[in-house]
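Annotated sample (chain length 200).
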Amino acid sequence: MTTSSRKVCFVTIGATAPFDALLSNVLDQPFLEALKKHEYTTLLIQYGKEGQAIFDTFTKNNPSGSPGRYDLDIQGFSFKSEGLMQEMRSTKANPAQKVVEGMILSHAGSGSIMEALRIGVPLVVVPNPALQDNHQEELARQIAKNGWAVVGKLDRLTESVQKAEKLRISSRSWPPRNSGALKDSRGLAGVVEDELGFLD
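Output written by the structure step:
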């Protein structure tokens, strides 16, 4: 990656249930350091309705250019009624604009996961342990089992960055070469679009 290239990590906390633990962890030194190590330049966070205080405290304590930002351009917003597709697409490679492929880190809401899978970049899914039932955990485990995403753990979030890089490599071989007539060059993203009837 050249020094002028852009590599985006987009984090979505969700719009309904607060997930302060995830927000705090992505703004913590180990995660930011891991992003820098893997040549990310931008951290874009959708911090939800209740996360602004955490985000504002971080930016106040770590103004632009300070060591605590690890040379990352860190931006955030609470909610967008039109959805998050534009932000998710900012993680896709765009050689004309010197953008290299980044990653999406998402809470384990089914809507966010399905949108992220359409993009076709590495996806890390972090279930919210504060929720009463375990449907997020079950969903995250299943998509990881299928090789479509990485399940992130709050106490080991830095590992997710490395696992996302490995997923980037392995996903490029999907579908398997021995899959006969199944030769969809759009990979998993194309299958998701076809199965769910998405039209762009």
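Annotation: The chain has eight helices and six strands.
Annotation: The beta strands are 6-12, 42-46, 73-77, 99-107, 123-126, 150-151.
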